[in-house]
């Protein structure tokens, strides 16, 4: 059995192989093959009459043997494994060797290179090419241009700050716009530059990022907690940095 690997569309490729296998087993295919062989013999005869070169017969016989005895007549059973769907394995019988062998060879090399790359350069399962296919590129770009805080308490306070302070500064006080925030080269400086002294965040009990639980104004939280701790957490020694 020959194994063919795909990253997606295993059922689609299975239908193609089934279609080829079915077509080669019909009487119509046999008729077309005989007609093609007759035409090729006539062309060979015309070519010989024009040049009287015996080498043309040798080339024709070699090509005919290659086409029939090696590529078309031998049949193989092909197993199609969809790497992005572990439960999707398709088996197709009577696939011509001329189609099964190149598919096995090409996809086998691609799979070996992919697995070798992923063995050397470890990435989370969500961004591995062999599991997510073309999403690998999008996920890889996303993970290299963004990060998530590994300090859970700090991440919680920052999320609350964005919901209660940043959104309010944009929609209520109009201190800056969504467009200005997206285009800013230093978004942290923008959202911490002039926070509200009235609106605020409820710090839950047990959060170690703040010195006390309860209500903190946006201004207090930005100046006394978030500014300093975000820099420390994203610098050498911080959890996110590590």
Profile the largest sheet.
3 strands, mixed
Question: How confident is the prediction overall: mean pLDDT?
Answer: 83
> Tally of extended strands?
5
N- to C-terminal distance: 47 Å
Short account of what is shown:
By secondary structure, the chain is mainly alpha-helical. The chain has helices at residues 10-24, 27-51, 55-72, 97-120, 129-132, 135-144, 152-171, 178-183, 187-192, 218-233; strands at residues 2-6, 75-82, 89-96, 200-203, 214-217. Helices cover 60% and strands 12% of the residues.
What would you say this structure looks like, in words?
The mean pLDDT is 83. The chain is mainly alpha-helical and 242 residues long. It has helices at residues 10-24, 27-51, 55-72, 97-120, 129-132, 135-144, 152-171, 178-183, 187-192, 218-233, and strands spanning 2-6, 75-82, 89-96, 200-203, 214-217. The strands form two sheets. The protein has a three-stranded mixed β-sheet, covered by helices on one side. A two-stranded antiparallel sheet has the order 4-5. A hairpin with a 6-residue loop joins strand 2 (75-82) and strand 3. It has two domains: 2-139, no CATH class; 152-233, no CATH class. 60% of the residues lie in helices and 12% in strands.
Helices and strands, with pairings:
Blueprint: E1 2-6, H1 10-24, H2 27-51, H3 55-72, E2 75-82, E3 89-96, H4 97-120, H5 129-132, H6 135-144, H7 152-171, H8 178-183, H9 187-192, E4 200-203, E5 214-217, H10 218-233
Parallel strand pairs: 1-2
Antiparallel strand pairs: 2-3, 4-5
């Amino acid at each position: 059995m020959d194994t063919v690997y795909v990253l997606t569309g295993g059922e689609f490729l299975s239908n193609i192989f089934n279609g080829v296998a079915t077509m080669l087993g019909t009487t119509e295919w046999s008729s077309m093959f005989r007609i093609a062989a007759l035409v090729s013999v006539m062309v060979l005869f015309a070519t010989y009459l024009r040049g009287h070169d015996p080498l043309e017969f040798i080339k024709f016989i070699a090509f005919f043997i290659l086409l029939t005895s090696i590529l078309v007549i031998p049949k193989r059973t092909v197993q199609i494994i969809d790497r992005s769907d572990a439960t999707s394995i398709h088996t197709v019988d009577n696939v011509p060797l001329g189609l099964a062998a190149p598919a096995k060879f090409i996809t086998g090399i691609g799979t070996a290179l992919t697995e070798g790359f992923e063995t050397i350069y470890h990435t989370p399962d969500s961004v591995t090419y062999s599991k997510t296919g073309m999403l690998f590129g999008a996920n890889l770009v996303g993970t290299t241009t963004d990060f998530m805080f590994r300090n859970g308490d700090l991440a919680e306070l920052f999320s609350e700050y964005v919901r209660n302070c940043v959104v309010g500064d944009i929609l209520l006080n109009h201190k800056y716009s969504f467009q200005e925030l997206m285009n800013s080269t230093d978004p942290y400086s923008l959202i911490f530059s002039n926070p509200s002294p009235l609106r605020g965040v409820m710090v839950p009990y047990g959060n170690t990022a703040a010195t006390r639980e309860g209500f903190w104004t946006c201004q207090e939280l930005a100046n006394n907690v978030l500014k300093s701790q975000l820099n420390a957490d994203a610098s050498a020694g911080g959890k996110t940095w590590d």
